[in-house]
Amino acid sequence: MSNAFDFDPESPRAVRQAIRSGRFRGFTNGLVRGHVQGNLMIVPAAQADDFAAYCALNPQALPVLGRSEPGSPHIPALGADLDLRTDAGGYMVFRNGELSDTPREISGLWRDDLVAFVLGCSFSFEGVLQQHGVRLRHLDEGQVSAMYVTGLPTRPSGAFSGPLVVSMRALRAADAIRAISVSARYPQFHGAPVHLGQPGLIGIADLAQSYGGHGLTQLHADELPVFWACGATAQLAALQARLPLCITHYKAHMVVTDLPVQASRAIPLDKKEIPS
Amino acid sequence: MSNAFDFDPESPRAVRQAIRSGRFRGFTNGLVRGHVQGNLMIVPAAQADDFAAYCALNPQALPVLGRSEPGSPHIPALGADLDLRTDAGGYMVFRNGELSDTPREISGLWRDDLVAFVLGCSFSFEGVLQQHGVRLRHLDEGQVSAMYVTGLPTRPSGAFSGPLVVSMRALRAADAIRAISVSARYPQFHGAPVHLGQPGLIGIADLAQSYGGHGLTQLHADELPVFWACGATAQLAALQARLPLCITHYKAHMVVTDLPVQASRAIPLDKKEIPS
């Protein structure tokens, strides 16, 4: 147990309880490094199959880790006690394509026609990268990775379409190489990067202008920006679809699951791990 | 059989015969894409153990594929008919640290105290990269990859020391990412790159000034230079050691072996595939 918390920050169940009870309100990217964290996306059942198809068409950005039964806020395979109405620590509620609220929990909003999706998140491989000696300066500086809206289109499905959103990490070349080699093994956490180097080549005009306005955006002279596909792609697609209701996690407050990170690796050398 | 040759360019034995008989005099990088090619390094037996130790200390640059018995120009495990006195297609003879000759074969120079080493070469993964959709512009333009002497030191052993030599390929970002993911699986062909992006960070002042003066050195605006450790590192070390005699292959005229490239892959995710 770390001195900084009154709970075990490496236990998914303990972290979920701390979030649920309001004892922990921070970003989840420094916690439970050995277990998978995910993006949350809740849509009405009427849109759920279209959204699932959209994820399947864009698996690098939107790798589905779990999907609830209609009306259920639980996905038992991700955690027996997991309650998606309370355990994300922060939510964004979108109505007709507009952000309407950012509540701490959504028990009062739950409906029997809602379907929850949990999507892979690059937070899950950050611990693995560090284990392989990759310096993640944004973590050293207490930040999260910055996100950007690119000029790259996703493949549309039904009402869902929009640009690819990416996360960026500022890495020295040797660390970028290590990070690519390692992350390629984890397609369920976005796999290998989609780009590195010149941001303008993927439609990012200015690194200082990140999506949501947060994250580490300044590069040192010996660093390259390295860009991974990001689950926030789903938020933009839901906004563009102007769904009557859509609920997501609040930035960097992810769903903490019981899935071990290590059990998710071991992808053989084939096209699955190579970005298309 | 390709129309361009009077031998099967995908058969190691046929290529060796064509080289041995003088019917083929070109670079080997477009041939036998499915089989391993190697750097040749021949030293007197008195220096062989020091050189082997130097390779072991610098495995990313100098992965040993085979070593002959003292006095033998054969390494049967690399090809039953392989004769290292005639099959490289071109040789460089160094005496006391100076290039003294570049003969087509070295039968007359062979001595019963010489030991031959064959070291992995990045030519062997170029075909694999292309199979994974990586565009190698230098091949499209009929060139070889350029080599550079870096400011990075190798780990010395006995008389052997010197800078790391690298090969460079000009790649677009998405291809660089693919190339890193794939080459990391082939530590016996130099593994993942050692650097990408700014050449100055590894002591390369000017990409136009390549080692040996050959290879593709011009970058397009959307390309990054990607640098792999190179077996030519051994040549510089042998020069610096001022060996009384040292014989290597002539540039881009490699030893063609019977080892299948594909059988060499499948490295599990561990520190072996991550450059240190």
Automatic annotation (TrEMBL), chains A, B:
It holds the Pfam family D-Glu_cyclase. It comes from Ideonella azotifigens. InterPro entries: D-Glu_cyclase, Putative_hydro-lyase. Keywords: Lyase. This is Hydro-lyase. It comes from the Bacteria. Belongs to the D-glutamate cyclase family.
